[in-house]
Amino acid sequence: MTTALETIKKINPAAYPKHVGIIMDGNGRWAKQQGKPRTFGHKAGVESVRAAVRFAQQHQLDVLTLFAFSSENWKRPEQEVSVLMELFMFVLTKEVKRLNRNNVRLKIIGDVSRFNDRLQKKIAESEALTKENDGLLLCVAANYGGRWDIANAVNRHIEKTGCTTLTEEDISANISLAEFTPLDLIIRTGGETRISNFLLWHAAYAEFYFTDELWPDFREESFAKAVQCFSLRQRRFGLTGDQVENA
Ligand code: FPP
């Protein structure tokens, strides 16, 4: 049987998404299925993060944005939040040199001011180390909320210009990742079909791909299936199908 990884090799790479956002859901359920604590699932999820980054590099994506911790996740049990923080710290410490060697630029979006000083320092160091890299942009959304991002963009514009009547362009210019390739595709694992306050502004014309696979099971073949599905979509951006075909 032909795999999706083989199939997408035959597709013109121009049809691949250039910016993919992933809502990595299902770690807790994956762990529960094995009779393990939820945090076991988060740890296993790190291997899927590695696989997604590898896939993104091999398929010339410009940007991969991973939703690692939402502004609502603070409401989870204290022990789980603390393990997630340690995991971010561990991943940054362990992986950033390798990312740098692979020409990956790392960027964190979200309100990092709520993280402890040690983690904030690690984030700043990791971003500084990789900031000249012009390969894949690996963006990690941490303490991120789409509504926070929009409110932040509005405030930034007002601070810069003093003008309180905003256009869509003003928000687009001040939103996170404004300077990078626009979002093409949002993948959500774990069977839920909602956006959960992820890249709300950016998602206006993005395609969605939902899979029941739990995040720790999501590997290169799963990513390839999402890309294959994306390549078959017709993105109309408000036009008719005929207009798009004739363009
Ligand atoms: C959602 O699954 C997953 C998270 C809130 C955390 C994701 C974090 C990682 C994969 C590890 C670190 C990642 C980086 C980029 C450093 P869930 O707990 O909501 O699962 P459930 O729906 O089954 O309960």
Structure description:
This protein is 46% helix and 14% strand. It has a single domain (17-145, 185-233), classed as Undecaprenyl pyrophosphate synthetase (3-Layer(aba) Sandwich), CATH 3.40.1180. The radius of gyration is 18 Å and the shape is globular. It is built from 9 helices and 6 strands. It has helices spanning 4-9, 27-33, 38-58, 78-101, 117-130, 146-161, 168-174, 220-231, 241-246, and strands spanning 19-23, 63-70, 105-109, 137-144, 185-188, 207-210. By secondary structure, the protein is of the alpha/beta class. The mean pLDDT is 96. A 6-stranded parallel beta sheet has the order 3-4-2-1-5-6, with helices on both faces. Residues 24-29, 38, 42, 45-46, 49, 66, 68-69, 73, 84, 87-88, 91, 140, 190 line the site of farnesyl diphosphate.
What is the tally of helical segments? 9
CATH fold field value: Undecaprenyl pyrophosphate synthetase
- How many strands, what sense, and barrel or not for the largest sheet? 6 strands, parallel
CATH-level-2 architecture = 3-Layer(aba) Sandwich
Give, in spatial order, the strands making up the sheet with the most strands.
Answer: 3-4-2-1-5-6
Roughly what fraction of the amino acids lie in strands?
5-15%
Give the CATH superfamily.
Decaprenyl diphosphate synthase-like
Average pLDDT for all residues: 96
SSE succession? HEHHEHEHEHHEEHH
Q: What ligand molecules are bound, each kind once?
A: farnesyl diphosphate
